[in-house]
Amino acid sequence: MNFLLVGDEHLFTNWFEVKMELKFGCAVGFGATSCSQQDQGARTIYSLGNRYACLRKAKAKKSCKFSIGRILLRFASMEESLSRTDLDNLLDHKIRAITRLAYDHNPFLHSLFQKAGINPHSDIYGRADLLKAYEKGVRTSAADVQECYADYADQIPTLEVWSSGSTSKPKRVLVSSDGIERAKRGQERLLVAAGVSNGQRILGFPAPPPYATSYAFQCQASLKNLKIRTLVFRLPTITLKIGREEKERIARSYIEMIGEFNPDHVRGGVFALYKFAQFLTSNGFDTSRLSIKSAIFSGDPTTEEERKDIGRLWNAEPFDLYGTTEAGILSYECHAHSGLHVNEGDLFLSAVDPKSGEEVGQNTEGIDLSTCLFEDNELPGTFLINYSHGDHIRMLQDTCPCGNNFKLSSRPRRDFEKRLISGFGFDMKEQRSIMRRGVRKIGKTLRLHHRISKKKTA
At what angle do helices 270-282 and 244-261 cross, to 10 degrees? Predict the structure, then answer.
C-alpha cells in the first residue's frame, strides 16, 4: 500500500509491533498513556526532593488561578506553565539524576567523568556544574553515539532508530520504552503549540522505518489526549519514472484519498512538502481547497524564503521544528513565531563558545550543547550528555507572548550545509532551491557553479 491510515485502534504500523514481539515477546511501550485526560490534570507537576506540587491540591486550597481544562487546552504539559524559577529547579533535579545514572551505567561516560576528576554523585548539582564539566572535557559528539548506549540496554526493550545520513554518516540510536514515552511528550508539546487539537487529522510524509521521521509519526499516532488520525504517503511513490497514464492514475487516487480524508494539518520534511505540493498542483488539484491550518516541517535548517514558500504552497501557517535522531525534539515553534521553544521538560539546551567551551550570552551565536533528560523512574537506551550536533544557535529571551515559559532559541544554522558533488562543494540550500523550482538538468547548474567557484578562487 502507498498510504497508511492510522486510526484510534491502529496506533502503530506492523513493523514496530512485530519487531518488539519477535525480540521481547510483547509490544512494550507503545500503548496509550496510563492516565486519562481527567487524571492527567491531577498528576504531579514536578517533584524536587521531598517537594511536591499537585494541581488538585492547589485548587483545593483556592491558590490556583487557572482550571485544569484551560491548562490542557493551552499547553501539552504542566511544565510549560511553571515559573522560570521552578523550571530551573526542575532542570537541575533532572540533570543530577541523569548524570548519576550515566556515571553508574555507561562505561564511556564513566571514563569521561573520571578523566575530568568529576564524580556526579558529589560534584554535579545542576546546570552550572554540567557546563563546567563540559569545559573540563565531559563532552560527546556524533562519533561517540555508539559508545553512549546504556550497559543495561540488552536487558530492556529497545528499538533501533537511524538517521538518514543526508548531512553526515548515518547514526544508529537505541531507544528504550521510556525513551518512547519521552518522545511522545515532545511530540505532544510540538503539536499543541502548532494548533493541533483533539481528533484532528494530519497529512504526513515520513521516511520508511527504521528512520527517525517514521518513528516520530508512530509516537504522534499514540497520543491519547489528542487522538490524531494520520494519512501517510511515501514520497518515493510519486517520484518513480513511470508512464504518463500510470502517473495520472496514481495522482487521481491520491487526490481522491486526500479529499475524503480532509486533513487539518500537514507535516513532513521541507523537500517532501515542496515535492508533494508540486505534485498535486501539476495534476490540477488546488491545495487551498483543503483548508489546512498549519504546515509543520523539519529536516535541514530552513530559510525565511523557504518558510514563506511552504506556507504559500499549502495555504497554511508554517511551523518550524528543530529535531534530530539522537536527541528527539530540541525546540518547536508556536503561534507567536518569536523563536523556537526549547523542549525544557526533557532537554537542557545551551549555546557555548566552540573554542573556550564557555556558555555565551543571550542573542550571541554559539554551538548547540544538549543533554537529554528523563523522569526519575525512566531508563534511557542511549545517554546524551553535553552532546553537540555542531549546529549554530542563539538563545533568545525567556518570555513569549503565547505564555509558554520554556526558553526561546533561534533556528539552527549548520556549518556543513555543503555537500561534495563532482569534487566541489555545493550549497544544500541552493540544491533545495533548484529542486524546488523543478530544474531537471542539475548537471548544467553544477558546471556553472563550478566555473563561478573557480573564478572566485583565481
Answer: 110
